[in-house]
Every structure is written in C-alpha cells, then in structure tokens.
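Render this sequence as a predicted structure.
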Amino acid sequence: MNKMNYLRLIWLLLAFVSGASYAEDRPVRELKAFLSATRTLTADFKQVLINEAGDPVQTSYGMFYLQRPGKFRWDYKKPIQQQIVSSSGKVWFYDPDLEQVTVKKLDQSLGSTPALLLSGEVSLEDNFTMEQQGEDEGLLWVKLVPKNEESGFKYVLIGLNNGSLGGMELSDNFGQLTRIYFSNVSINREIKQDLFQFNAPKGADVFSE
C-alpha cells in the first residue's frame, strides 16, 4: 500500500473518531450516541480498494485499535504486513518489506481539519455536512461531506450495526473508493498502551517530514 492510500485511510479514521453532531435523523442520533459512549475500540477489519471502474484492486485484512482522544493503530496482517500508529500528535507508517518508517506530524500530514477533529477540539458539524442515508445491508448509514473543498476526499460514509461500528466508505478526489468492514468489535475494553508506542525496528530507515 502506498503512502497516499495510508493517508486516505487515516482521513477515514479521523472522520470516525471525531465528535458527532446534533441532528434529529435516527442514523445521526445513533452515530452521536455511539461516539459519546466509546472510549476504546478494537476490531478485525477487511479493507477493499475499488478503482474508478468499480473493480476491487486490493483487499487487506488486519486489526484496528482505537483509544480516544488521538490514539489509533492499524495492523495489516495480510496479504502484506504494515502498520499505522498514531499518538502524541504524530503518525508512524511502517513498511516491513521496505524496512522503512515515515513519521509525520498529524496536522502537516493530514490537513488542519482532520487533525483538529481527531483531537476533539472542533465539532463535526463545523467541518462536515451530515446526511442520513437510511438503512442498507443491515447497517444505518450517515454521509459526511467535507465543507473544505481542499480536504482530499468527496465524502465519508459511516455504517452502524445495532449501535456499533459496522463499516465505512471513503470516496477520494481521484475516483477511488476505500471500503472497510469491521467484525468482532469490542467497545471500552482495556487496551495495552504500548500498542500506541512505536519504536522503529533496528536497521529500518526512518524519514521524518
């Protein structure tokens, strides 16, 4: 997975971990309740990248860990191993095959709006137009359209499964979709803090931006 795909994934994550808006539609209300009640989250995930023609071009599997505010980790297990770790205002991208680590400041790598949303300092409604999408495939969907035209993506969909996270979809400005399906979701269980502490493996090249 290249660096642009990494950033698309984090944009998607940041839309999820931000605060929710006040709205009367049922999906938006459920999203607000879910985010308000969630302190930590762990889940298995399946991520599918879909090209402009609507064809899947890459499928990945792994584990996702979240601790609000501002800490998350994506562990890609197959077909290749990769890691994305965020903590203390930084994001580490580790590619074992390349033996390469890229470190970015969160605000510089993602743009001011997603970074502020992750920190919890800016409300979701200030940065996104929220539209309920009703029910499809057993999930209640909320569409988030960024108000900033330079955000790098067109919209984010968040799917709720009985009040918990079920799926996400992000459409970028290049015609590519990123879909993530979550399973075995666990809410508010204790997570070991060393999961969010990244130490570059011996011999890996480290690049800071």
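Summary. The longest helix spans residues 3-17. The helical segments are 3-17, 26-37, 106-110, 112-119.
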